[in-house]
Every structure is written in C-alpha cells, then in structure tokens.
Amino acid sequence: MSDTATAWQAIEHSEPERLEALFESDPDRLDRLTIEEAGLYFDFAKTHLEAGLIDKFVALADAADLAGKRDALFAGEPVNASEGRAAEHMAQRGQGAPESVALANALHMRMRALVDAIEAGAMGEIRHVLHLGIGGSALGPDFVIDALGREEPAHDVAVVSNVDGAALETPFTLFDPEYTLVVIASKSFTTAETMLNAQSAIQWMRNAGIADPFGQMVALTAEPDKAVEFGIDQTRVLPFPETVGGRYSLWSSIGFPIALALGWEAFEQLLEGAAAMDRHFRLAEWRENAPVLAAFADLYYTQVRGAETRAVFAYDERLRLLPPYLQQLEMESNGKAATADGKPLDRTSASIVWGGVGTDAQHAVFQLLHQGTHLVPAEFVAVAEAHDHRDPAHHEQLLVNCFAQGAALMSGRPSDDPARHFPGDRPSSTILLERLDPADLGALLAFYEHRTFVNAALLGINPFDQFGVELGKDIARAIAEDEEALELDASTRALIERAL
Ligand code: F6P
Q1: Ligand 1 and 134: CB distance under 6 A
Q2: Contact between residue 262 and residue 438 where contact means Cβ atoms under 8 Å apart
C-alpha cells in the first residue's frame, strides 16, 4: 500500500467524539483550532478536527509531499502538468520566482500608468466603466468592487458576463456611451460570450454617434496580439502572463476595474493582504496554517463523512458575491475525476459549494442545515468592525445571528417530539475579518486559493486546468455553425427545432 493510502486509512478509521465532547476533552481546543493572521480570525473549533485527527492529516500531507508541491508552486515550476505551465498568480502579489515577480511588477506599472492617465483625463471624461468578461475574467473584479466600492466609487462600474442580451440592458440604459470606458477582459480573447458582448457595446456606441468606439476601449488579456487585431490600440492593451489562471487572475491586469473604481492604493493594499496570506501559507507549520487546517476539515467531511456539499454564508451584505466567486474557484479547480498524473481519481472530488447571505439564508435554507438528513459543513464569514455609516444595531443583529447559528448547529436541542428535535453535532467554521478593507479582503481571497490548492494536493488533483468546460462549448459552437457532421440526440434536436 502506498504511503498516502496508509495515511488515508488511518484518517478513515478515526471516530471523533461529538463536537461538544471534543471541547470537554481538550482544554486547549480553542487555541489549537483558532488562528489569527493577516487581519483574519479563523475558528475551526466547531469542526471535528482534533489533535489525533490532525496528526493523521499531517501524516497524509507528508506522504503526499504537500511541502514539495507548495514549494514547486511558489518557485514557478510547471505544476499545471496537463497544460505544461506554472501557476503564478502569487507572483502578481510579489511572491514567487524573481523573474515572474519582476514581470508582474512591470505589467502592474503599465496598468497603473493607464489608471493615472484616465484619472488625469487623458481619455476625456469617464463616468462609467463597462467591464465585459466571464468566469475568472468577471467574478473577481465584480466581487471586490461590490464589496469595497459601495461608497463614492470613482466611476460607476458594471460587470457584464452573461451572453443574454438582457444583461447589457441596464448599463446600456443607465450609461451615457460618450462617457463610458469599455473594458474587454478575456485571458484567451476568444471567449464567445465576451466577444459578442464586446460587439454589442461597439454597436451601442456607434448608434450613439461615436465615430471611434475602439478609442474608448481597454483590453485585459494574456493574448495582447489578438486584442490589437480586434482594433484596440496597444497602449490600452494590458497584458498578463499565460501562467496566471483565469480564476486566479484578479491580481493581474484583470483587476484594472478594481484599481479604477477604488484607486491604485486600494489595489496595492489588496495585493499586500494577499501576500501576507501567501507568507503565512508558505511559512506556518501545517498545524497552525489556516488554509491547511481548512482543507483538512474539508477532506474529512467529503472523504470520510460523505458530505457532498459545503455551504458558505456571508454575514455581510458587502460579501454577497463571495459564494459565486468561490464556486468557480473551488469547483472549476477541483471538480475532476482524474489525478494530476493521469489516473482515475479513486476518491470524491471537490465538494459542491453553495451558499448565500445571512440573515436571508436563515429564512430559506437553514431548516435543512439544522434538521435535514444531509451533512452540510457550514462556513460563516463575517466582519467584526461595523460599517461606518450604519446604525450599529444592524451590525450587532447580524453578528448575533451569525454566532447563534454556529452554536445551534453544534449543540442542537434534544426533544421527544421528532419535529422539534435538533440533533446538533453539525460542523461549522467561522472566518471573522477585523474590518472589510482591501488588505483583509485580499488575505481572505488568498486563503481560499491556498485552501483549494491544499485540497487538490492531498487528493492528487491538478487544480489549474479546466478541460471540463470544453465539451459543452464545442457542441454549442457546432450547433451555432450548423455543422453537418454534428450528431445530436433526439431530445436536443427537438429543443433546437422548437426554439432556434
Ligand atoms: O469557463 C472556462 C473559462 O476558461 C474560465 O476558466 C475562464 O475564467 C473563463 O472561461 C473566461 O475565459 P477568458 O478569460 O479566456 O475569456
């Protein structure tokens, strides 16, 4: 049996006590399972991780060479084996191979120069920014701007990703094309949805009498030649390296609308917060390492207890886009059935991530969390400091509810009446940001990236490719082009005949 198989076997044979009993049997539990780092407080004490189980996961980490894999990631080695390239998003925040960091700095300087020029009026008056991109080219900027840019953003920013024309209607109605900067964000610069939305934006500007719509466009891409060929002046094409994956790209020029909306300083603080988390991940012992402990808990529930999903609840309206952001990060990274060395994965892949905002979700889905038959590890993300201009009563209510849910899930409340019986022993973890500022948010997002990486490393998955999205794209293209050789089932044919 391989070393990892032996380590997994030991993990599978663990039988942790009920959560409340774990607190009683280990007086150091809170110390052991809470971590304070980079403005974030992580509480994993309401999970079933305990000293013995953590030791077994550390043995798995050693057997799976987690340290070697992490070092290869930071060194810029080709850890994305199926595509033969490195995964260098950390270099964008100054952590990684020196030549990659130097390149990232140079590209950031280009980006900053364009932000400065726009702020100085070099492109005329810009009131609105229409950011067109999808997946990783949209979710990160959308989330960060929504979280941090609610008060007096320098520009109105709309992020449009869906190919459904209805998504463009609001910005086309609210924005004045004369004062709109259109940003086309696409790593490949070929994504069908983004290209069609870009064409529609050009048409919208032309319809408004703008003679040169390309003069109001910026491209963010790893394929700068394609953007120039499309018609965008190369001074307004902001490249980023091929080694930065789409869902890891908000730190690169894909973050341009963040810098425009929040200012360059805020963008830099976002990078610095992420870099602080990078250092923590790189340097802390596994037992004191937040992304690593979080991944241990993830793996315990998915691999041993059969949990198929994890629910993430942002107890802060400003973080409402966290669940969709994490869905791409975690499910596109680790939703795979093959190992990095090309063998079938003999375990469950990444869990399905879902969630919402508290307290709304309490009145919708929490019934199932408290009394349903599924095991759903819950994750609460909240901010300690109240938002400046809010009546503090709101924030207090929000946090009271957040903490009450974790306590209720853990302790339960027995009753002889089955309808009123709360079994308890339901795991949750809590991440508390000191305040919602660029640095803390950067650290939070980097935490999730590294947690995803650790999950992949311990399962033996390559988290940096995404071949699973290709087949549907191919068939869509073939249908759109009416490709003769395309063989389709009767059900799909009938749908096409009805609607196309
Ligand atoms: O959905 C697949 C995907 O390739 C994502 O990984 C990526 O973030 C998104 O499409 C957009 O791709 P691009 O930035 O090349 O337009």
Answers
A1: yes
A2: yes
